[in-house]
Amino acid sequence: MNSHFFARRLHSLTGMVPVGIFLVYHLYLQLYLHQGAEKYNEQTNSFYDSPLAIWLLIIFVYIPLFYHSILGAKLSIEATPQPSYHYFAHLLYWLQRISGIGVLLFIFAHLYNTQVMPLMTDTYGQHFEHLAEGFASTETGWLTKSVYLLGILGATFHFANGINTFCMTWGLALTPRAQLRVRVLSIIVFVLLTAAGLYSLSAIW
Amino acid sequence: MSKKTITFKILRQDGPNQQSYWETFVIPYLPNSNVISCLMDIQKNPINSEGKKVRPVVWECNCLEEVCGTCTMVINGKTRQSCSALIDKLMQPITLQPLSKFPVVRDLAVDRSRMFEALKRVKAWVPMDGYHDLGPGDKILPDHQGVAYKLSECMTCGCCVEACPQYSRDNDFLGAAAISQARLFNMHPTGKLIANERLDSLMDDGGIAACGNAQNCVEVCPKSIPLTESIAEMGRQSSKRFWKTLFQI
């Protein structure tokens, strides 16, 4: 085993375990959007109130997330396009890379919108209002809405398809039949997470 | 008399590291031809579509029955063997290009020694320490034989690596064929003896971790070898070795 092998296995693992689990938890929290501003802010702030929150975020979310995305972006750039081979798995291969880079850009915009800007304007803690204002804006509302829509779709696709590649990389699903079962599972995960994300957004659309 | 013709657009190159150029050839139609029989016709009378006599097109072939893999080239944009590429089933003009992942020797002939080096890297053989009589080998069960026979059909033709987006001229990826051969020899009763050495090669630079799961390899393999199954199996074996070395050393 050398560093390249270790780096790639860590890439696979970080995408699934800390980042994937965080995505599911994060999408779950957004369901509180339907319970109104007070309840949503209370739920979100209760997590940040813990003295460990920032450390948990850094160790289990930010470091694995940026490790996964920086190495992923590097690998995506190194891939050689093979445009004459039109196969489904090959399409997913490119969608995985495009969605990964797209979601990384979304995360930067999302972090600015929900963390940096509230801190700068000293309105931190009013999560619901920030989101709702961004969506309701007559000038940039359409842009915010489309960015969030693409961001959620990209993230849920990247995670669900990542289940396939994870099972392949670690050798969990061996035969084509087993790989098909994992694909069915990943489609179910994709549909459920996307539905949850879109349902949450509908509260402030 | 039929005036039907066959048109070829061939990507030619006069020698290694030289500029490539397209040349068109139009030859009379013959029923049931394949790409190789047409290349032979061009060789007999190497006149291009402008009526100019040119150097005959160079290509490689051997068995003419899709078991040696030598005549692999890119036909109408897809990698395949030219012996089994039947003219009646191809869209015209038929484009012929050398494999893009290997250095061109001349015209359609490429140097595939990187694939042989990959087989050496994964020690795709059964280790022997002499020519003396070793007695009968281990018994092999039919289900084992069924898997091994399919894997042994690999002819190192290069289709899998040609279609692979992770395999490029400037990296050192082993490719699906070599990973699958490592699986074949790791399941052989005697080949198993150096299973860990093969895994160490697969876990080195350009090894199994360089696979990006595009799965083009299994789609284009002319022998229908379950290459993604092989990659997953070797992924499983290297995962076991990964956890073992992580907690042992």
UniProtKB/TrEMBL annotation, chain A:
A Pfam family cross-referenced in the UniProt record is: Sdh_cyt
UniProt-listed InterPro entries: SQR/QFR_C/D (IPR034804), SuccDH_FuR_B_TM-su (IPR000701)
For this protein, the record's SUPFAM superfamilies field holds:
Fumarate reductase respiratory complex transmembrane subunits
Which Gene3D superfamilies does the entry link to?
Fumarate reductase/succinate dehydrogenase, transmembrane subunit (1.20.1300.10)
Q: Give its localization.
A: Membrane
GO CC terms in record: membrane
Query: GO molecular function of the protein, one example?
Result: metal ion binding
Entry's transmembrane regions: 12-32, 52-70, 91-112, 147-172, 184-204
Main location group: membrane
Protein's recorded name: Succinate dehydrogenase
